[in-house]
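Question: Now follow the chain.
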Amino acid sequence: MNWSNPVIIGLLVFIAFLIVVIVGNTIAASVLGGKFKKRKTTSATTTTKSSGWFWKLVIIGVIGFGIFGVVRYFKTPKKAIVQTVITPKSITERKWKLRWKKLPTTPNGVNGNQREIRLDAVVMKYDRFEFKIVVFYKEQGQDEQALLYWNRVESPHYGIWSQNNPKDSGRWALERVRDDLFVGWETSSTGAEIPLWLEAVD
């Protein structure tokens, strides 16, 4: 029990006050009762004593109710207030998919007849100075990586991407249109421009 709680202190003071009133009322009734015996009229004495007992019962009832309320308050289990705060993930913490799709007029590149692809990607850095993405793919069963790097200070309009297997490189650019989506383009060794998307998957 937290005895420093203002509510508890107030209740204790109130109960103590009522106890003092009861004791004082009892003493006063005893003193006045002796004086009333000297009177010949017993009706006034009876009325006074009845009134005194009535108020005693009222005060005792109030005290009992107060004690019951305090006990009930501390015995009642309190529900913990749980507040869930969801902090949005940063761009570098999210999982991404890089997707490109060749237009009907786009010639085949080093990937042969592959016209569309969607690959796992990680954004390593994203700010007003740099944009760096690592893309994961497989080539003949081997795990490979492609690097997309954009130095916005040196080249404000596009970055450079490259991969080793098969050997290829080109330009690229992506613009953030939503918290979970970038839209842009890329070129390969053929020089053809291909639509490019970077989509969050979590």
Notes: Residues 6-75 form one domain. The mean pLDDT is 79. The beta strands are 96-101, 116-126, 130-139, 142-151, 159-163, 168-178, 181-187, 193-200.
